[in-house]
Amino acid sequence: MDHVWNIVFVTAFLFSIVIFYLLLFKNIRLRQLKSKHITQLPLGTLGWPFIGETIEFVSCAYSDRPERFMDKRRGMYGKVFKSHIFGSPTIVSTDADVNKFILQSDAKVFVPSYPKSLTELMGKSSILLINGSLQRRVHGLIGAFLKSQQLKAQITRDMQKYVQESMANWREDQPVYIQDETKNIAFQVLVKALISLDPGEEMEFLRKHFQEFISGLMSLPINFPGTKLYQSLQAKKKMVKLVQRTIETRRKNGISKVPKDVVDVLLSDASEQLTDDLIADNMIDMMIPGEDSVPILITLAIKYLSECPAALQQLTEENVKLKKLKDELGEPLCWSDYLSLLPFTQTVITETLRMGNIITGIMRKAKKDVEIKGYSIPKGWCVLLYLRSVHLDDKNYDLPYQFNPWRWQDKDMNGCNFTPFGGGQRLCPGLDLARLEASIFLHHFVTQFRWYAEEDSIVNFPTVRMKRRMPIFVMRRVEA
């Protein structure tokens, strides 16, 4: 028995030493951090050395209520608190006013901050990472083109075409996986808008390697053969080569004075800053919304409508009425019809953006010491703007977990309590197109089908998606 007690004693002693040094390290680090900001740092805890509070954060992120991590600390420390996640001391903000200030700050105050694997995959020239005049230039050029009537008309034609082709193949005796169908459609529409590529071998080549590329966005930052990050980088190189061939052909044949896609827009810029490598890299990065944002927006809208018969009935009646009117006039629907003549459809999309939180949060890093609303953010610290908590705050929205598109019929969606597309200089330039594509899909879907949705659940981490890809069984509507 003595040797057993010796083992217990030695184990307890070693454990005590480890705990002592962990606490000592934590206290030293806290004193270092507080020495300059002792009275100004937001309340909170930095958690364990090295790992901080990352484990609890990720654990909550995988649950059906990922905001519980924030709610617990917000109750103890307030809407802005300090933490330590993903290897960095971090100020977490669930305060709409603080979020707005940071989003509208320029690159001299805050710059984007992303996991190392993502920054390696995107590259230094990505529009997500570049700052200053170059970022404003690229963002401005792309934003202006994405808002142009010319592109909206093209997107409308392409979206209608690909939606109809997809729906024509749906069978009533087999499940339709909405998440897969919308990803396929949105990817084709976006690639056409970026580089004017039609469905075919090159499109399939891009789609295949794009799947390999995005699979490494949240991988371990280890880059050698066999790792996920290495495979993703290799996939991106292959896609970049394809886009570079397109760029070389355009330069050889002469750049169009009337741009037909985003490549034309960037090639027409006289600035020497926009190199062919920068353009090609950004075309790949801009394909990500075709994989995530737009398809998930549409998929979640169908999920919420499936669970809210009253909203589905009103949306269907609105769209059937518009379709009959257009059929009687012998006119196809144009982009302005979808965005202005379907007001309830727009409230459904808005409520889906609020509840779904496709962009859960935004990361920034302070370039200098900053004070906001009495909170101090030290230079070098990360800031997590947790948009989901703002959108699901019962102080901002009555019954926030209830799908209620009618709440938007008399509510301003331009306030700082609603920021599904970010804000400031980095506001998503494709926000109007996302609404347009969702409107087109919903219109054709509800005017052609009734459906039954199987049970499915939302996964919120590392990206928002449906666990079973949203399976539904459809029944074609009979024309009256």
Automatic annotation (TrEMBL):
Q: Identify this protein by name.
A: 22alpha-hydroxysteroid 23-monooxygenase
Instruction: Cite the EC number.
Output: 1.14.14.147
Q: Where in the cell is it found?
A: Endoplasmic reticulum membrane
Reported cofactor(s) = heme
A Pfam match is p450
Catalyzed reactions: (22S,24R)-22-hydroxy-5alpha-ergostan-3-one + reduced [NADPH--hemoprotein reductase] + O2 = 3-dehydro-6-deoxoteasterone + oxidized [NADPH--hemoprotein reductase] + H2O + H(+); 3-epi-6-deoxocathasterone + reduced [NADPH--hemoprotein reductase] + O2 = 6-deoxotyphasterol + oxidized [NADPH--hemoprotein reductase] + H2O + H(+)
- Topology with regard to the membrane? Single-pass membrane protein
Q: Name one GO cellular component term.
A: endoplasmic reticulum membrane
Q: Which GO terms describe its molecular function?
A: 22alpha-hydroxysteroid 23-monooxygenase activity; heme binding; iron ion binding; oxidoreductase activity, acting on paired donors, with incorporation or reduction of molecular oxygen, NAD(P)H as one donor, and incorporation of one atom of oxygen
Belongs to which family? Belongs to the cytochrome P450 family.
InterPro entries documented for this protein: Cyt_P450, Cyt_P450_CS, Cyt_P450_E_grp-I, Cyt_P450_sf
| Species of the source | Crotalaria pallida
Q: Name one GO biological process term.
A: leaf development
Q: Does the keyword Heme apply?
A: yes
Q: Taxonomically, which superkingdom?
A: Eukaryota
Q: Kindly state which keywords UniProt assigns to this record, in alphabetical order.
A: Brassinosteroid biosynthesis, Heme, Iron, Lipid biosynthesis, Lipid metabolism, Membrane, Metal-binding, Monooxygenase, Oxidoreductase, Steroid biosynthesis, Transmembrane, Transmembrane helix
Q: Report the transmembrane regions from the record.
A: 6-25
User: Which residues are involved in binding heme?
Assistant: 428
Pathway per the UniProt entry: Plant hormone biosynthesis; brassinosteroid biosynthesis; Steroid biosynthesis; Hormone biosynthesis
Q: By its UniProt entry, which CDD domains does this protein fall under?
A: CYP90-like
Q: Please name the top-level EC class of this enzyme.
A: oxidoreductase
